């Protein structure tokens, strides 16, 4: 299928498809006249690219997954070598957990400040959580 047909079928723009190609995530065949030609598996590849980008992975991450992009990500995985997928997913999960922890720490600080402002009794003391420097700076008011 040609680029316009793939774009319609996959629900993306031709610009997005060209970007995926530039990033090495999508590899169309080229005809003698230079037209791109995609196989039926390209629809799944594009769907997987979109799913993983929406989940917070980067195009660099996706290049590490390479052949695994043709797998059905929501079903059984058939990558010949699942190691790259495991490594990328573990790294992303660690980053996500770090963000969750940072957001929870900021939330707790804001709840405490709100209680103070309303004159309400303090919430029960919880074990202190380490706040990452970027979360701490976001939680502190700017010095005037």
Describe this structure in words.
With 144 residues, this protein is mainly α. The chain is 56% helix and 3% strand. It has 6 helices and 2 strands. Strands 1-2 form a two-stranded antiparallel ribbon. Helix 5 runs parallel beside helix 6 (133-139). The longest helix is centred in the last third of the chain and has 36 residues, at 83-118. The protein is elongated. Mean pLDDT is 81; it is low at 131-144.
Which key phrases capture this entry?
single chain, 144 residues, mainly alpha, 6 helices, 2 strands, disordered C terminus
In short:
The protein is mainly alpha-helical and 144 residues long. It has six helices and two strands; from the N terminus they run ααββαααα. It has helices spanning 3-10, 14-22, 41-54, 59-65, 83-118, 133-139, and strands at residues 29-30, 36-37.
């Amino acid at each position: 299928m040609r680029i316009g047909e793939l774009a319609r079928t996959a629900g993306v723009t031709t610009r997005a498809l060209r970007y995926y190609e530039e990033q090495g995530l999508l590899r169309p065949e080229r005809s003698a006249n230079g037209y791109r030609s995609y196989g039926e598996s390209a629809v799944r590849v594009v769907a997987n690219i979109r799913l993983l980008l929406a989940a917070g992975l980067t195009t660099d991450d996706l290049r590490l997954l390479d052949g695994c992009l043709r797998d059905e990500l929501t079903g059984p995985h058939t990558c010949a070598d699942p190691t790259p997928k495991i490594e990328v997913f573990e790294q992303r999960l660690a980053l996500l957990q770090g963000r969750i922890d940072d957001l929870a720490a900021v939330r707790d600080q804001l709840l405490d400040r709100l209680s103070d402002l309303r004159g309400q009794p303090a919430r029960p003391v919880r074990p202190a959580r380490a706040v990452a420097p970027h979360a701490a700076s976001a939680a502190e008011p700017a010095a005037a």
